[in-house]
Design a protein that fits this description.
about 350 residues; 4-stranded mixed sheet; about 50% strand; 25-stranded mixed sheet; mainly beta; 2 domains
């Protein structure tokens, strides 16, 4: 057991701390401007690490356990150990079990990288809790303005194993295997994972699916907040009704009307719509390749001739046009999904 301790300007093979498990908040470990070549392991303490580089892995003695609220890793480089024999990386394991007393950790302005030798064929997520999570203890791992190397197969596997938030992060993942996405989330039995994505960049994620859902129970959740690029979105799911557990508290931004994948409740906003064209669309039916979208907001009402009516699709039902060929003051006509009609329902 260690009381509070500080390490500054150190280069060392391994740093491993285990404090008093009954009171992890009573011990603070400071790691500042250090390099831990082989591993850094922290258990039952409050961690404050900054400007350091350290290696993490998933061996039995490398789990991080029971970190107290206020634990922060800032401006650090986290390296996942790489096994050249299996072409796999060892995930970082922030463990939480019923007996662990909870887990709280914020990564701020950090960079995650696999060890030397990893390539675009290397497997394994950067982050994964090795234990199933049932909510019996508080648990939250937050990543703020962090970047993940494009050499990771996944950024995180959060299937049934904890609560995670990604805020302003660069997400990565090159997975093409069925059932594996750059972000995996879901649950089974009494266990669940929850992931929140806010204002994240998926441009470096080349995975077939940016998000994969293993929704075998009703406890898991995926929440989208802030703004994301619709062109970077793709998802697949292992069971029906992923919309019941996917929450949208933000917007997706597109260059044109969405015609690809979507989950019910998703909103997509066109960045620079033409006057009278659709500005915002809502997904009304799930689809991994072609979802159903409907117009919910038109970008102004265009007043122009018949020849210059907006070019619309079946998703734009309800769009209004003021036709100056039919009436000099602009006759109101509406798009019904296949053609234009006036107030009487007649084709015009």
């Amino acid at each position: 057991m260690l009381p509070s301790a500080a390490f500054r300007d150190c280069v060392i093979d391994s740093l491993e701390f285990t404090a008093y498990e009954a009171a992890p908040a009573a011990q603070t470990i400071v790691v500042d401007r250090c390099v831990a070549v082989a591993k850094l392991v922290v258990r039952a303490a409050r961690l404050r690490a900054c400007n350091s580089t350290f290696t993490v892995g998933s061996g039995n003695n490398e789990y991080w356990v029971s970190l107290a609220p206020g634990s922060v890793v800032e401006a650090c480089t986290i390296v996942n150990r790489y096994d050249a024999g299996t072409d796999e990386i060892s995930p970082f394991y922030p463990r939480s079990q019923a007996s662990d007393g909870g887990f709280h950790l914020d990564f701020v302005h950090c960079r995650f990288e696999p060890g030397a030798g990893a390539s675009a064929t290397t497997t394994g997520p950067a982050i994964k809790n090795n234990a199933t999570y049932s909510g019996s203890q508080p648990y939250l791992v937050r990543f703020v303005c962090c970047g993940f190397s494009a050499l990771y197969q996944q950024t995180i596997n959060a299937y049934a194993n904890g609560i995670y938030e990604f805020i302003g992060c660069h997400i990565a993942g090159h997975a093409t295997t069925p059932g594996v996405g750059a972000i995996n989330v879901g649950g089974y039995g009494s266990y669940f994972g929850k992931v929140t994505l806010r204002d994240c960049d998926f441009s470096a994620a080349t995975a077939t699916y940016k998000v994969y859902y293993n929704n075998s129970n009703a406890l898991w959740a995926l929440t989208w907040q802030g703004a994301h690029r619709y062109a970077e979105y793709s998802a697949a799911y292992a069971a029906a009704n992923p919309d019941l557990y996917t929450h949208f508290a933000g917007i997706f931004v597109a260059d044109a009307m969405p015609t690809g994948p979507g989950i019910k409740g998703m909103r997509v906003r066109v960045a620079n719509p033409a006057p009278g064209a659709g500005e915002e669309y809502a997904c009304t039916a799930n689809g991994t390749s072609t979802a159903t979208f409907r117009l919910v907001r038109q970008f102004g009402i265009k007043k122009d001739s018949t020849a210059n009516r907006p070019s619309l699709t079946s998703a734009d039902i309800g769009a209004l046009h003021l036709d100056t060929t039919l009436d000099a003051d602009g006759k109101p006509i509406w798009w019904n999904g296949t053609g234009w009609v006036d107030a009487s329902g007649g084709a015009v």
